TrEMBL record:
Residues 9-148 form the MABP domain. GO terms for molecular function: SH3 domain binding. It is a peripheral membrane protein. It comes from the Eukaryota. InterPro entries: MABP (IPR023341), MVB12A (IPR040335), MVB12A/B (IPR018798), UMA (IPR023340). GO terms for cellular component: cytosol; ESCRT I complex; late endosome membrane. It is found in: Cytoplasm; Late endosome membrane. It holds the Pfam family DUF2464. Residues 175-190 have a biased composition (Pro residues). The lineage of its organism: Eukaryota, Metazoa, Chordata, Craniata, Vertebrata. Residues 173-213 are annotated as: Disordered. One of its GO terms (biological process) is viral budding. Component of the ESCRT-I complex, a regulator of vesicular trafficking process. Required for the sorting of endocytic ubiquitinated cargos into multivesicular bodies. This is Multivesicular body subunit 12A.
Amino acid sequence: MSLMERGNVRPVTAVAWASNSGTCPKDFTLISLTEDGASANFTRTFGMKSGYYLCYSKDSAGGMVVSDIRIISDKDSLPHGYCFIAEHLEPKATVSKKKRVCVRIVPVGSVETAVLDIKLTAKSKMMLQHYTFVGDIHGYVLWYRKGYFSKPTPQAKPRSVSLDIRQLSLEQQSPPLPLRPSNPPPPQLPPSRLSHRRHTLQTKDELDKPADGSIHGITALDGVPFSLHPKFETQANETNSDLNIPIKSLQDIENEYNYTFSVEENAAKRIRPSVQMAGIPSTQ
């Protein structure tokens, strides 16, 4: 087989029986004549008016190919991986079961060679070049040619384009609208000493949160803005008297809460105080 023939030959994908061209399935080729010019009508009995024909298909839509063909008798068991060919017959018509045709069907991507053609001869002494002898069946001889085949190229499925995409045009583009924040920031309050202290506390809370943003560092107050009522902000700026919040310096806090812990220090050292009695000198 030349390279050109090797690249253009389609494999056989199915084999079947058919009563005539009317019962032959679509995309199947009916073998009506043998290679030596005789009728290829398989007649079951002499008194039977209609017989049946062998047909094959090369439709690759199913993704399967015929890799081998065999003829077995009714006493032989079906080989592993093989199946009997289908029957597309007229009502009440049957195929002789003394000898049956079975095929091996495999996925198209699993083999490099497959059955490329099927032929029949009426004389067993006639030889067909480049064809393999399968066997005798009901007075005919079945042959097939096997070789490399051209695998079908995958076709891309058409994609459905939505109406919105089809309405887009690169030539006529409307100017972009200005961006508007959906959640504008709250209005800025007048600066005050309390606002500065509150900002310092909020910054400290942010630093205390874990860097990974895990749920352990999230509280119910996260994301809730904190601010004083404008009434108290105004009063705090004027007198700070209504709020009754004493503002102390660092030195005032140290003087008020200074504690030397001398009692605890003496207890830790377990120092027993010396007792001096009248007229008796103390002993060291």
